[in-house]
Write a structure and sequence with these properties.
Blueprint: H1 7-24, H2 30-46, H3 49-73, H4 77-93, H5 97-113, H6 125-150, E1 156-159, E2 166-171, E3 174-179, E4 190-197, E5 200-205
Parallel strand pairs: 3-5
Antiparallel strand pairs: 1-2, 1-4, 2-3, 4-5
Helix pairs in contact: 1-2, 1-5, 2-3, 3-4, 4-5
């Protein structure tokens, strides 16, 4: 049992800081050992042997769910459940609600502070690959769209709606949102694409 309830905040803060930090950056297990030590001290200081094992399992189950989310799903669902499991484990292990509140705050602050390690240390490969893949997918999709739109320059079509000055045009059977640069064009009028800026299509009456 700790002498003061507020000590729980620092122990859970440091434990969570280093354990999640180990997931984010490659410290070859050093952060994991330190974090595991702090969390072990926290649970062993409040719980009997049987409950100590159970709550440690719940806490680390939460971390495992976060790893699974990061490696496989990457949508935040399991990571959220995992974070909740960690909070529940430390909160219910405390002898009173004040110590429990301190410990929960420690987990939340520790998890948030662990992100600072990304600014100092090299992030783990799985996080780097995810960020790179997401970036490439988005960039490739955007570039493909820009190239497609650029090919519309000089093409002719019809105004599907009145353009005053924004509306919809039909070019080669496909609908596009376009702008007439202040010129009013009535539905059914022939148009020609003057220029394309990104995905902004400028047309005029043909």
């Amino acid at each position: 049992m700790f002498s003061y309830d507020w000590i729980a905040l620092f122990i859970t803060f440091l434990g969570t800081l280093f354990l999640i930090g180990e997931l984010l950056v490659n410290m070859r297990g050093a952060f994991a050992i330190v974090g595991f030590g702090f969390i072990t001290v926290y649970f062993s200081g409040y719980l009997a042997a049987d409950m100590f094992v159970i709550m440690m399992l719940v806490y680390f189950l939460g971390m495992i769910l976060m790893i699974i989310d990061g490696k496989l799903l990457n949508d935040g669902t399991l990571a959220t459940i995992g974070g909740a499991a960690m909070v529940i484990a430390v909160g219910f292990s405390a002898p009173n609600w004040i110590a429990g509140l301190y410990s929960v705050i420690g987990v939340i602050l520790g998890g948030a502070a662990s992100l600072l390690f990304l600014k100092v240390f090299k992030r783990r490969k799985m996080w780097t690959q995810m960020a790179l893949n997401d970036q490439l997918t988005s960039e490739m999709g955007y570039n493909s769209m820009k190239e497609t739109y650029q090919e519309l320059v000089g093409r002719q079509g019809k105004a599907e709606t009145d353009m005053r000055p924004v509306g919809t045009v039909v070019i080669d059977g496909d609908d596009y949102s376009a702008i007439s640069n202040g010129q009013w064009i009535s539905q059914g009028d022939e148009i020609v694409v003057v220029s394309v800026d990104g995905t902004k299509i400028l047309v005029k009456k043909n």
